Amino acid sequence: MTLTLAEYAAHDALGLAALVESRQVSPKELALAAAAAIAALNPALNAVVETYADRIDGLDERTLGDGPFRGVPFLIKDFFGHEAGRTIEFGSRLCRGMVAEQNTYLYELFRRSGLNILGRSAAPEYSMAGTTENALYGRTSTPWKHGYSSGGSTGGGMAAVAAGIVPIAHGSDIAGSIRIPASFCGGVGLKPSRGRVSVGPLQDENGYGLGQNFVQTKSVRDATIVFIAVGTPQGEDGSADLTHVLGVARDVARAMNGYKVIVDKSTVPVGTSEKVRDVVRKETTHPFSVVSNPEFLKQGAAIEDFMKPDRVVIGAEDPRATEIMLELYAPFTRTGAPIMVMDCASAELAKYAANAMLATRISFMNEVANVCELVGADVDHVRKAIGSDRRIGTSFLFPGCGYGGSCFPKDVKAMMRFAADKKYDFKILDAVETVNAAQKTTLYAKMKKHFGSLKGKNVGVWGLAFKPRTDDMREAPAVPLIEALLGAGATVVAYDPEATKVAKGIFGDRITYTSSNYDAIKGADGLAIVTEWNEFRRPDFGRMKSLMRSPVVFDGRNLFTPEQMKQQGFTYYSIGRR
Description:
Layout: H1 5-10, H2 13-21, H3 27-41, H4 46-57, H5 61-65, H6 72-83, H7 92-95, H8 104-113, H9 132-137, H10 154-162, E1 180-181, H11 182-185, E2 188-193, E3 196-201, E4 208-209, H12 217-222, E5 225-228, H13 243-255, E6 260-264, H14 272-283, E7 288-292, H15 302-307, E8 312-315, H16 319-329, E9 339-342, H17 344-375, H18 379-387, H19 408-421, H20 427-439, H21 442-451, E10 458-462, H22 478-487, E11 491-495, H23 500-507, E12 512-513, E13 526-529, H24 541-547, E14 552-555, H25 562-567, E15 571-573
Parallel strand pairs: 5-6, 6-7, 8-9, 10-11, 10-13, 11-12, 13-14, 14-15
Antiparallel strand pairs: 1-4, 2-3
Helix pairs in contact: 3-4, 3-6, 4-8, 13-14, 17-19, 17-20
């Protein structure tokens, strides 16, 4: 059904929630009604509402219905019901705690309206937030039914949740009347536990949740340690955006009632701890310490990595904060994992340096693989030979079709950016990026060479996510490959165990999606293997051959050996091997 403005106005928040939950109204329809409510409150916004209503029609239900966005129409409803007929002050409770890309149109409505944000700013501030699943498992999908945590990033959220600590995310104390069922908001706060912190839901006495990503004054006052674990999205120049981090620090400072240890868990550039200190000092006279505690968690394996860390890095400038952090992490390092205490700048740099080194190893091996193809060598033999050197080791020496995800690309760019800010040209990382971008084209180049023309060819693709055990397709090699194939006139049929829903948001109906890997190669002229999911490692080769129009495999992850594929009767192309 289409939800008219009158119907929107006639329902209270619980009624709206029931309509969406029963699927009588879609999240998109509710969002459009909320935008109309804004226009009703301020007629000058009609043109802006029209623009962004058109834009919202172009977004899918997942984008609009997931995450913290789902509370926004209820918040607007609260203002609409109580303050219709005059320009309202959209408080930070409305504008903060949203995932930026999910709420662009609302953000722009607020920004362009010039409405005050509780007198603090001419434009709303908002934060990044993740789902419980994202915080725990490093996935990015955000199903409607899932509860929400305050974790802004895979590592930040997981580190705090696994430790029994919930990160404080961006926002201010809710001093108002909004009453949304807790099941819809899933807010999480902090409670004291033996002088530290533990998990507890933010609800009032009637069981109503107080929302997502709002810094609760009581939570801060009850806590000894406050983790900042929000997103640091990449800016247009490659730098890390610290808006959310500093916003959290500001709100935490305003809520302080005594000594606190404020911990930067987010991935932040060198110098952020000083910026946090400056922000906090301006807002409070209470004593505090700022600690840098970067996470080193793999997406898809965050729980295991947190519970069994290789190391814990603590950047602290005073003995009191150091002692508290050592006590906090003691239960997680009983097997001998080192806790490394250092200055904040070193801790901040360690995170970026670690990811940059791993990215460098990948690009280096891809370069070696490319040379192997030219000289007739086998990169697997070369890899094993150099990996046996204890000074080098075997990790991250597997060539492929390029790295992706939210960490390596973003962190490499950020490290280059803050080095450039200090007038230093990080030449190696520039080369790492260049090599990686080129490597993402290698499978297409092999296909082009084999087929000549790809027009009219049917290509099966196994794997869409940038790595196994996630649905994350940010910077995934599958994206440029598929775009190149489509541009050349090929038909693409793809399968991924987790990332299909995300892929639909990228490619729409330009490609076909299947529910099994074998369905993706029915009548295929060739198969491209892009992600090394375990289920792809031991396929039924006879079944594959019978399904494909021509048995040609382009293996971007070297899952099979050339000898094995030759015996099975396949024409086989891999990375860096004869």
